[in-house]
Amino acid sequence: MYTVTGIPLTRTFRVLWALEELGEPYELHQHGPRSPEVQALNVSGKVPVLQAEGETITDSTAIITYLADKHRALTAPAGTIARAKQDAITHLLLDEIDAVLWAAARHSFILPEEQRVPEVKGSLKWEFGHNLARLESKMSGPFLMGEDFTIADIICTHCLNWARSAKFPVEGEKMQDYGKRMRGREAFQRVAELAR
Predict the structure, then answer these.
(1) Which of 159, 154, 178 is nearest to 86 (CA)?
(2) What Rg do the C-alpha atoms of the chain give, in angstroms?
(3) Where is the GST N-terminal domain (predicted)?
(4) Cβ–Cβ < 8 Å for 62, 70
(5) Labelling 7: which of 16, 80, 87, 162 has CA 20 to 30 A away?
């Protein structure tokens, strides 16, 4: 049994979705970022936090990579060319999609008000659209890695949903269709119920 600390409206969603796809049991402790309960587990106060095997793991990508490797699912095997390609897409998502959305969030409500630069959001929306179009051009199957659903799809779909709530346009038809299909997955739907 895994213990997940965080709330589904954050990157915690990625961890819960991975666990649902894997069919692994977990207990969810719904505590928000920087809450005393989270800071007791992660000094940065960030969520999600996973407790497993008597250890604490932080960072959503580190957590879902650990889960995928441990359960030998949702990932290409370590040490293979397929895994290197999957890791390349994962890092692209984190550097060029997630990071842009995170910068917009920081300048919207996370940073102290006197440190926010709301004008940067127009530039970030342009960058997001440009980066998403490049990602879309790489897609050659139903999933980011072709025929296999992987943790990269979990990260990408979470970012697409984040973009919708942040009013960042997702314009490409292929990416819109992809997002709809991913949100239709049963494991996604079970986590979406927790977020309501």
Answers:
(1) 154
(2) 17
(3) 1-75
(4) no
(5) 87
